[in-house]
């Protein structure tokens, strides 16, 4: 006889539903560091820079990096370049921060030697308007002094060379009469009441040759004792080359002189030969 089938197992009991997880307790709300800023320009600027998304540590790091660039010793002393529309007040504040003195007198510019101070006043006012610092002004003053000194030396050297050339030309023109004429010029200047400084000033303005020839002509007209006449007059001094050449030309046209000069047997032959030779030497600029 066959065995009877085993009974089916009883169905398992359905599991009980799991309990719903508990809601985590809400974390306490912390105030953002920006909330401590007063409502106003600073807070608005921070909001515009999106600083709310960063931490306070980020802000401190940003300031620290800025200080590395600017330098702790320069913090608070930086300046912003002037714009084209800067006001005079803004420009003044800018120049003051750069080191400009409070006023033009702060430059302490010394007046150049022989100057009444007008130039120093003008320079101070101009430098102040330009916003220059004392350091810049001192540099300009130093360079200006070097330029003026160099220019003055160059002018002095040029004047000395011109005077030497003029004197040499006059010495050639006056020839053997140069020394006597020079003494005559000095005597005439004294007779006219001219001081040494006035005579030097006349030579500087007219040139040494022009001044000496001018005074020489005055002396000739005045007939001062000891003055060499321009035409080889009665003073007996050496003739100038031009005066000697004129005298030589006159002798050539003098029949009596030429007869004596040509005729070796003439009693005046020797004197005529010597006179013509002396005039020839003077006409060529050689002392007689």
Description:
The chain is mainly α and 288 residues long. Among the domains are: 44 residues, no CATH class; 50 residues, no CATH class. It is 57% helix and 0% strand. It has eleven helices and no strands. Helix 10 packs across helix 11.
Concise summary:
This protein has 288 residues and is mainly alpha-helical. The chain has helices at residues 41-48, 56-70, 88-98, 118-130, 134-174, 178-191, 196-206, 208-222, 241-252, 255-262, 269-283. It is built from eleven helices and no strands.
Structural class: mainly alpha
The helix-strand sequence is HHHHHHHHHHH
- The helix content is 55-70%
Number of E-state strands: 0
Report the principal-axis shape.
rod-shaped
Topology diagram in text:
Elements: H1 41-48, H2 56-70, H3 88-98, H4 118-130, H5 134-174, H6 178-191, H7 196-206, H8 208-222, H9 241-252, H10 255-262, H11 269-283
Keywords:
288 residues; 57% helix; mainly alpha
